[in-house]
Amino acid sequence: MHRKAVNHLRRVDPVMADIIARVGTCRFKAVEEMTHFEAVVRSIIYQQLSGKAAATIHGRVAALFDGGKPNAHALALLADEPLRSAGVSSQKLRYLRDLSERVVSRELPIDELHTLGDDEILRHLTSIKGVGKWTAQMFLMFRLGRPDILPDGDLGIQKAVQKAYRLRKLPPPARVLAIGAKWAPYRTIASWYLWRSIDGDAA
User: Which of 144, 145, 172, 201 has the most crowded CB, counting CB atoms within 10 A?
Assistant: First the structure.
């Protein structure tokens, strides 16, 4: 499935070729079993939490909706208390309210995001309170499966680049983008390999 991308990365960058050899087969896969709205809700809930805690809260929130599937109109009508009881902080509650209001008012064309270009999607998503560039990039990668996203501000990516390219300091976003320019148009796959290179499984 990712053969063309992997062959390109091997060809243009010997450092990436070494990472690919160590990590092995690319198993990157976008999440298809949720709506765009659900994906953004999940991203907001998961911010700054450990995976286990976030999964627990997300499960409780999902259970508040029919079929366990949050939607904008139902969220807009839901009182604050059930969400707080599920573990949603006051700050994230504001973020979820802003998201649902923008979708209900059609200011955010959530169901059509996949028809737009990467930059336009970033602009739409980062207009939502609590959704920054990183969260929008994760949506592009793991929800839409866009092939050429490099989350230059991601700490894991920066650490992996520092280690792989033997840099003295953690590279700032501009350096990450400069190093990764050659990976285009498959920077999503390169990012997946970078994350895997430092997660302990590829050591």
Answer: 144
Fold designation for 3-29+149-197? Endonuclease Iii, domain 2 (1.10.1670)
Rounded to whole angstroms, the Cα distance separating 22 from 81 reads 49
Name the more confident of 67 and 201: 67
**Burial (CB count <10 Å: 0-12, 13-18, 19+), residue 153:** middle
- Backbone region of residue 39 per phi and psi (left: phi > 0; alpha: psi in -120 to 50; beta: other values): alpha
Structure tokens at 160: 């992996």
pLDDT tens, residue by residue, 92-124: 999 999 999 999 999 999 999 999 999 999 999
With beta carbons less than 8 A apart as the criterion, state whether 182 and 9 touch: no
Rounded to whole angstroms, the Cα distance separating 203 from 197 reads 7
pLDDT at 47: 85
b/e string for 138-152 if b means 16 or more Cβ within 10 A?
bbbbbbbebbbbbbb
For 36-143, which CATH superfamily applies?
Hypothetical protein; domain 2 (1.10.340.30)
Q: Where are the domains of the chain?
A: 3-29+149-197, 36-143
For 44-59, what is each residue's pLDDT tens digit?
A: 998 888 778 899 999 9
Q: In CATH terms, are 3-29+149-197 and 36-143 the same topology?
A: no
